[in-house]
Amino acid sequence: MEQLASLAPYVLILPLCMFLILGLFGKKMCPKVSGILGTTVFGIVSVLCYYIAFKYFFSGDYQIGDTFQKVTLFNMEWLRMNQNLVISIGFLLDPLSAIMLIVISTVSLMVHIYSMGYMHGEGGFQRFYAILSLFSFAMLGLVVATNIFQMYIFWELVGVSSFLLISFYYFKHSAVRAAKKAFIVTRFADMFFLIGILILSYYTKTFDFGPLTQVTDGHVEIVNSTMSGVTLLGFPIISIAVFLIFLGGAGKSAMFPLHIWLPDAMEGPTPASALIHAATMVVAGVYLVARLFPIYSFEAPHVLEIIAYIGAFTSIFAAVIACAQTDIKRVLAFSTISQIAYMMVALGVSGYGGVDGLGYTASMWHLFTHAMFKALLFMAAGAIIHAVHSNEMDAMGNLRKKLPITHITFLIACLAIAGIPPFSGFFSKDEILVAAFETNKWVFAVEYFVAGLTAFYMFRLYYRIFWFGEPENGYEHEPHEAPLNMTFPLMFLAAVTVITGISWAFGKFSFTEFISSDYSSYEIHTHWNIALPSIGAGLVGILIATFLYLEKTGRPNKAVSYIKKPYIWAYNKFYIDEIYLYVTNNIIFQRICQPIAWFDRHIIDGFMNLLSWVTNKTSEETKEVQSGYVQQYAWVFIMGVITIVLLSINL
Amino acid sequence: MNILSLFVIIPLVMMAVIFCVNGEKKSLIRTIMSIGGFALLCTSAYLTIQFLELRQIDSTSEFLFTESAMWYERFNIHYSVGVDGISVAMLLLSSIVVITGVFVSYAMEEKVKEYFLWFLMLSIGVYGFFISLDLFTMFLFYEVALIPMYLLIGLWGSGKKEYSAMKLTLMLMGGSAFLMVGIFGIYYNSIPEGSEGTFNIQEIAANVQALKANGGDISWEYIFFPLTFVGFGVLGAMFPFHTWSPDGHASAPTAVSMLHAGVLMKLGGYGCFRVAMYLMPDAAQDLAWIFIILTGISVVYGAFSACVQNDLKYINAYSSVSHCGLVLFALLMMNKTAMTGAILQMVSHGLMTALFFALIGMIYGRTHTRDIREMGGLMKIMPILCVCYVIAGLASLGLPGLSGFVAEMTIFVGAFQHPDLFHRVFVILGCSSIVITAVYILRVVGKILMGPVQDKHHETLTDAVWYEKVAAFGLIAAIAAIGMAPLWLSNMIGGGIENIAKLFTYGL
Amino acid sequence: MNHEISLVVVMILVLLADLTIGDKNKKASQLLSIGLFLAHTILCFQWSNSFSPTEAFSGMYLTSEIHMFVKNMLNIGTVLVFLYAYYWNTHENKSHAGEFYFLTLSTLLGMYLMISSGNFLLFYIGLETASIPMATLVALNKKREESAEAAAKYILTAAFSSGVMIFGISMLYATCGTLYFDGISANFSDFNLSIMGLVFFIAGIGFKISLVPFHLWTADTYQGAPTSVTAYLSVISKGAAAFAFMCILMKAFSNYPEAWKEIMWWIIVVTITVGNLFAIRQKNLKRFLAFSSISQAGYIMLGVIAGSDQGMASLVFYTLIYMFTNLAAFGIISSIEDQTGKVSMDDYDGLYDTNPKLAVVMMLAMFSLGGIPPFAGFFSKFFIFMAAAEQGEYLLVFLALLNTIISLYYYLLVVKAMFIKKSDSPLPTIKIDNMSKVGLIICTICILALGFISPLYSFIAERSFGF
Amino acid sequence: MNIPVESYFILSTLLFFIGVYGFVARKNLISILMSVELILNAANINFVVANRFIFPEQLEGHIYSLFVIAIAAAETAVAISIIINVYRQKKNIDAKSINELKY
After folding, report:
1. For residue D47, which residues of chain C lie inside 8 Å, CB to CB?
2. Residues on chain A touching B309 (C-beta within 8 angstroms)
3. Quick one: what percent of chain B has pLDDT higher than 70?
4. pLDDT of residue A559
5. How many helices (H) and strands (E) does chain C have?
6. Domain span holding position B374
7. Mind listing the pLDDT tens digit for each residue in A394-428?
8. Residue D43 belongs to domain spanning
9. Which of A77, B248, B481, C245 shows the greatest Cβ crowding within 10 Å of its Cβ?
């Protein structure tokens, strides 16, 4: 305990220091040094994370019976609002944060290594590593938050570091535009998050997760005692609060309709996409909901239902779009959206405690596995782009010989995401489907379909890259395999994907031992009645993909020609961006800002100028009074006297 | 001698010295200025430490370092000074802005001597206002601070400077006209039976409380509170009395914009708080809603109109309107947390906006344009300046770890504790400003700093020189310091707030 | 009585000096007269230290400490005017220098009587003694057509207004049966005839203080008269009249304030506003200051409407500071006019670049007139407003304050001309004579210092208690 | 025969307003001066009458009117001299002609 407590601060301090050092003195260092420095330091950090997680799970000091305890390793007061509302920076250790620590440190470390190769020779190499450290700091801080406001703080920080990474190529208009979009959309969502926090804290008089997630006989006491029965506009206030908080999460996790920023965010360098926009930051929303899960589950079940529906819709929506994209990173982006939606669905359909909490467990595990293979996919994509210098599918094809390692790892990841056993993805996805099946058939149906769709578009991607024949005008120079510091992360993550999957398959370890809605482990086993059909769906998707894209044939176009309209719509992402664009430009800027600015200049300011004008004008107009005729002076004089007399004497 | 008087004496001495120096010896004058400014900075830092120590010992008395000397005994006017946590914070802010302002105006070549004389007079007014506990001296310093603006803008300004200078001066003087009537009203109506009136704020407050306790007539508050509040509100850029600010800031020379937006506008908020609300709590409480609406408007309104401006200074001026609106807004929420947030916001906005104006000045000095449509991709050309600009922008859109976030969050959380729904609805309205702020900040950052280089002539421009770096980094350091470790500051301020907050129903 | 006597003596001596050595040695006679008057001034200070309330002509003439103070004040002002006038008298006005001093002093004598009169007869005599020589002073420089015109307007309006005034006094006499102030205050009632008398009287004295609507002569006369005389008019005679006015209101009409408070309220508002509005458009600085002085008179009247000891104190204080401030302004104007003949505001463009000192002094004067701290004007304004506010005249104070914004506007116009505007043909660098220099230095010091010297105010306040 | 006091006052008031009318209406500066005299005399009548009929036991009114007459003389003298000065420059004494200074 003490030992961990003494170690824990460094998890946050080291990356922060790295950020400051690289940020301030990066210019002075030569790129290589800064890269190695950043990587090694983060290596230390990840070792720390592993150690902490390991201790937590296996030392047994932290579980009573088979229930894991929440432990606050340190908690220092940062800002005191009033007697009970305190913002503190701390380190909360529980299964949830432990898992997240592992995920983040692993992926982030891999990305650190990978970037050494990928970003090699880029301008602003040091800047990249500085921001990478900043992001790692923020993300770690987010997951270990002891109170919701600390979470909000680091929430904002990851937001800004994502902004900085997207706008890494700041001299490109598209990058800047994407970065702005990402920041503002998430900021917009954060506003709701903040309001949610305000409402919640107004009633519960605390930010602290301890009381907020303390379940006593089927209720979160503090919430139930203060907020039950309070309604606003007919809705129970608690539902409003937690829904607003969820909206915050929806922004970061790119739930429909706040998903528009994520595809554009691919403008950033690929490692950044792998880390932030595939593995870690985008799941923050899921993490948020999981963190406050007791409140959702007990105090606002309807909101949980809504979350499920939103998730379901988003997942299918994104999957459909993914089928029509040609930019490989965008395909991956949409698949990310759809997979995160999966996790949301899992939470949405989950209950609390024991087997009811299966969805919770499944979503967390899917978060874990997805982080691994999606990061892998992105890095592989990066390697491919690195080789062919393009994001477009048309510029690729037939690369399986040229990039063997990339090819294999990519394939593994595809299988995993397509839910083919024994890869990790299969199991997590399977559990999600089970949970959905037991709770909500409609959602289940959608997710089942999405599983097939996922398999299809992933293998479409796979075939387009590695088979399908070379592009028309060949490659201007022969694509070659990436250097080791890029391929190693691929192999490592592939290994993780495989191993977790297999070890689960042979029941070596069960995720449920580690994480469950009430932190006490329980037994589950694969439901083949659900699993087999889902595998079937996956296979069908793969087969269709194979049929269409294995060789260069006219089939794809023919297939498209059957579904022209939907294809166009999907290709244009259902025109959501255009709608947003219209709203911001034509409504907010044209209809609100411009008029206000005009009003200010011409009405308010105009009034002030009017006053001075009137004064000067009267001064000019009245000059005739001073006519220069002495007799008129006398006239005015006597008239004045008479007027005063008439006014003052009492007749 | 009392340490507080130093804040007036040091600038006076500097004025005397510079007055004697031959105007041609520019570098000498600059040196004197930087030395003096540094002395002021040290004094305020020392004061802060002393204050915190003394607070440990004596936590009861409202003001520390008090000193009082009879001036006009006919009206019982004293030169009486004293500070609580709030004024200490303000003094610290002023010192930082003043010294950085000096460094920023190092490049000034024309009529250096006169420029710095007026600059010093302005700072005397500011310091004097923050240290004085006597309404008369307070008002005196207030106007002392206002008038130099006219010549500073008119002589060294740019654009339609004469118009802006005149407009600014007259509008602020109009504000002080309201204020003066308010002061008279307070003075004469707070006189207890059988004793003579006083200008001392503490005594007045005590008298008013006694009057209320004895069931005396306090209806006068309802006439003079609005007058006083509006009087200070004009300087606090409260809608609809804010229009001097865009033109004024746009025309003013850099350092003056810094000092004006950074410190002088804070006089408004400080006065609203120290005079209007402290001395007339009942009226404040009953009439708050009017001003909550007005300030709530200016928060959103300023942000929206900043979104479509094309002149950098205009953008910043409007964002100042929005942020200072937030200050008054939080003050009117009348509870300790919100008020603390308001003061924090004053400090943080002071630093932020000073940094902004400094950087805008530096950029303008190089590109000779402030129109964002004519700039682009400056990040490549002058990285240091631009990174500073980005930091300033992030601070102003409330990035955690920088001062803006601390202030805004304290305000929102505090204000939301108000049990009345009306208030909370307006708080939510205020929250929307953080999004709009992000919009216009990113608009500028994306337009002028990022993207491809717009104007080929800009490619030859140089990056910051040493004194500019000193100014910018100094301000950034302060911003970050507050943002990282806000606790001591908010506690210091909170201590001062309590005395006033306890007058209100939901104060504590 | 000492003041008057010694003044008469000085007058005679000045006259003799002019007659005897005036023709041969102008300078000497002038210096002599200035010296004599200086001596008189100092003596007066001596006497006011050892003071005992005197009364003469069976109570027609009575004097108290505050009267002494005001008289000394007027003396100082006159000294300053003499200092400014010296250059003009030694160059342009060589032939009539002697008259200048003699006439000025005789008007001063008139003001003495006017101030310390206890009876309408003496008051009337004093008033006329003050205004008739004034006309000749205005006309003093015979060559200039303006001067004659200004004088004509002045004397005609003066005669007219004094006619109106004594008509009013006659009504008061007819109703109250006495011309002694205390007698009047005893018998005064809201009998229409006596109220009419009061109004006519206010009109008569309002002419001297140039209150609206009795002000129209002011601008023309100020512009036409020689600048030193204008300075004298705008400061000394106005101040004396204002003080006398307040004394009379306090003595004769104090027990029936309703009758005049209302009237004064309106007169003040109109005066300040009209003065400001007309001043905005002026280009000729003398004319500009004329209108500014009209609005200043309005502010002075705030003390009158307060009608209290504090009102009296702040009125005197205001007049004192107004005297120094305005004289500083006129000092600049006259010395520039004497040397270059330029009085238009446009001529002052870029003055700071050529004559920084003059520009700075002028700026100080303008700020002080506008009531900008830390200059003396701020304090006087603040206190006189307080005096009015004490009587609950908040609305009036507020209107007056709004007017100060306008006034600040045109004062800043002058500052703008001198400092901000650039001129292709700026005034040449001017070497001002030592006399004016001394005067200007005194004024500048007073502008900077008087506000902070609180004992001065308490000195006045003690004396003005009950006067 | 005895004449009621009021009629004296009516007379004086008439005289006063005639004087005012003259001052405002006449062209010639001299006649304007003369109308000033009328005003003064109106006042004098008031004084004397008030003294004679209302407060017969004192002399203030009489004295006052004497002073007024004296001062009026002085005033007129100065006025005339100034008017002469005006005539020197303008070659006429028309009231309308002296309006160089205005606005």
Report:
1. 170, 173
2. 597
3. 100
4. 80
5. 20, 2
6. 3-501
7. 788 778 888 888 888 889 998 888 888 778 888 88
8. 5-94
9. B248
